[in-house]
Amino acid sequence: MTADQLATVAGRPGHARGADRAQTARRRTSVATRQHRAFYMFTAPWIAGFLLLTIGPMAFALWLSLTTFDGISPNWHWIGLANYRELLSDSVTWGALGRTGLFAVTSVPLSIVAGLALAVLVNRPIKARGIFRTLLYLPAVVPPVGAGLIFKQLFDTNSGATNGVLDIFGINAVAWLSDPYARYVLLMTVLWGAGNVMIISLAGLQDIPRELHEAARVDGASAWRTFRSVTVPLLSPVLLFQAVTGVIASVQTVMPLLLASQPPPGGVTSVPQSNYLYMMHVFAEYFAYGRFGYASALLWVLFVLILIVTGLIFKTTSGVVFYNVDPEAKK
Fold first, then answer.
1. What percent of the chain has pLDDT above 70?
2. What is the reported pLDDT for 17?
3. Where does the pLDDT of residue 74 fall: very low under 50, low under 70, confident under 90, or very high at 90 and above?
4. Could you tell me which residues come within 8 angstroms of residue 292 by beta carbon, excluding any fewer than 6 positions away?
5. How far is it, in rounded angstroms, from Cα 178 to Cα 93?
6. What are the φ/ψ torsions at residue 156 (nearest 5 degrees)?
7. What is the pLDDT of residue 104?
């Protein structure tokens, strides 16, 4: 056998190993490609919806906020930041923003406390607690439009059931849907949906290990001390979630429009002053006055304010929220 033949035979194992490694690398590349393709196929509907139904409308609203477009007339003009400058000097806007802030500060803690109290009650080992959970959560699944119509009928001045009950006791009818009572009816609608907060709080309560409560009782802690020192700290991530989502929902509520004496969208002009929140002002500018550009500027300002308030909530609660797993930990 010649030297060249010996070299060829000796080199075959190395070539075989190299070919196997290349084939393995191609197989891994093929699997990764299929996984990437499957990922984008499954997420494509969400990505398309996010781009077309979220980013697209937001970009269009930003463009509208820089114009005088009224939604109908083709004679619109580019005015730059004029709408935003007008917004800063508009007393109606600032008044609506102040009432919205007061409503959020009042309604969010009220709903969280009410939901947590209900969750603690239905978490106890009582008979038929499944039925109680269902009944308490049931109002939360009623659509906002339906809930608004229900409260509008209940508190109607002339034919409402509430004034009917007052009449039994010889009390004169109350104009519940007018100032100064309209704000209280609005807060009642918040309590109406407390079942949603109850379900989330109940899930958080059931996730707390029983051993911690038993250890607290062994140490002689009272029920209130156990709740304050064990339950609330362990439930703090859930309470933070409810606070953030509650603030976002409260500043965007349209319930005052549903409680107005006239049907929407024209009914926005009949909303009582105490219930004339920020979104009512946006609706008025859009549908009552046809100022699409100014209303879009109002919405963009609200979007920025929500980002700021959400960031402040996370910043100020970073030292009092307890996580079982560090959210900043790297995997």
1. 87
2. 59
3. confident
4. 64, 69, 70, 71, 286
5. 21
6. -65, 140
7. 94
DSSP 172: P
Alpha-carbon Rg for the chain in angstroms: 30
Q: How many Cβ atoms are within 10 Å of 314's Cβ, its own excluded?
A: 13
The residue type of 314 is F
Residue 209 amino acid letter: P
Q: Is the separation of the CB atoms in 62 and 296 below 8 Å?
A: yes
Which of 119, 164, 161, 163 has the alpha carbon at shortest distance from 140?
A: 119
Cα gap 105→211, rounded to integer Å? 35
Query: What pLDDT, on a 0 to 100 scale, did the predictor assign at position 9?
Result: 47
Q: Which amino acid is at 104?
A: A
pLDDT greater at residue 235 or residue 29: 235
**Helical (H) or strand (E) element with 295:** helix 292-316
Tokens at 15, concatenated = 């070539």
Residue 300 has pLDDT above 90, yes or no: yes
CA 108 to chain centre: 12
For the full predicted model, state whether its pTM sits above 0.85. Answer: no
Cα separation, 30 vs 160, in Å, equals 69
- What DSSP line would sit under 59-95, residue for residue? HHHHHHTTB---SS-S---B-TTHHHHHHHT-HHHHH
Can you read off the two tokens belonging to residue 42? 């499954």
- Report the pLDDT averaged over residues 145-155: 88
Provide the b/e sequence for 57-96 (b: ≥16 CB within 10 Å).
eeeebeebbbbbbbeeeeeeeebeebbbeebeebeebeeb
Token pair 């709080």 in the structure block, residue: 201
Inter-residue contact 202 to 119 (CB < 8 Å): yes
Mean pLDDT of 66-76: 86
Distances (CA, A) of 114 to 79, 194, 237, 238, 313: 47, 6, 17, 14, 21
Residue 75, both tokens = 């004679």
Single-letter amino acid, residue 171: I
**Distance in angstroms between the alpha carbons of the first and the last residue of the chain:** 59
